[in-house]
Amino acid sequence: MRELEGVWEEDNKQKWTKEMKALLEEINRVTNDAGGVLGAGESEKYRQRYRAILQNAEAESPPPDETNRKGKRGRLRRTKARNLLERLREYEDDVLRFMDNKNVSFTNNLAENDIRMTKVQQKISGCFRSLEGARMFCRIRSYLSTCRKQEVNLSQALRMLFHGELPDFVRS
Fold first, then answer.
1. Does position 71 have pLDDT exceeding 70, yes or no?
2. Angle 109-125/131-149 helices, nearest 10 degrees?
3. Positions of the region Disordered (predicted)?
4. What is the pLDDT of residues 116-168, one digit of tens each?
5. CB 114 within 8 A of CB 141
6. How far is CA 55 from CA 10, 30, 38, 78, 117, in A?
7. Minimal CA–CA distance to 169: which of 159, 157, 158, 74?
8. Distance of CA 114 to the CA centre of its chain
9. Using CA atoms, how far apart are residues 118 and 5, in angstroms rounded to an integer?
10. Quick one: DSSP state of residue 74?
11. Domain boundaries in the chain?
12. Helical spans, DSSP H, in 34-130
């Protein structure tokens, strides 16, 4: 979503980016209303709309003209919009996986938050005092993050840990 916004703002207000963003938000809303997973027919209907937007985007973000090549080797430079278009086409299954798999989130906010805490700790302290301290911090944060994602109460998870016990998801 962030990249679609960026291309809209920086790359000549390409209309297809707004259409794609609106479609992805609609799919997310409909998927949530359906309980987290869409049926095969509805999923295919959205995939066709996704592909149609990408097909129309070809006119706004054409591939670079190979005839302008001046003996340089390698790939010709592409615009950010073109690169995004090619990635959305190549990774369609990954981009739309959230509508077919209840365990896949629409955003990657949880993953970004997991990384952010380490950066905040570094900014506050300037650094970790030792490699072992950094490892312990990461181990604890990883455990708490996993517990949160598995819907285990964090206070209960810490209490169990201090008593030498582990939540059910760790044992299975």
1. no
2. 150
3. 55-77
4. 777 777 777 777 788 888 888 888 888 888 888 888 899 999 999 899 988 88
5. yes
6. 21, 23, 24, 17, 40
7. 157
8. 13
9. 27
10. S
11. 2-69+78-99, 109-171
12. 40-60, 80-90, 92-95, 109-125
Structure tokens at 100: 């077919």
- DSSP category for residue 71: S
Token pair 């952010």 is found at 116
Output the pTM of the full model.
0.61
Q: For residue 113, give both structure tokens.
A: 């938050």
d(C-alpha 70, C-alpha 134), whole Å:
50
Other C-beta atoms lying within 10 Å of the C-beta of residue 39: 11
**Contact between residue 105 and residue 113 where contact means Cβ atoms under 8 Å apart:** no
The tokens describing 64, both together, are 């670079």
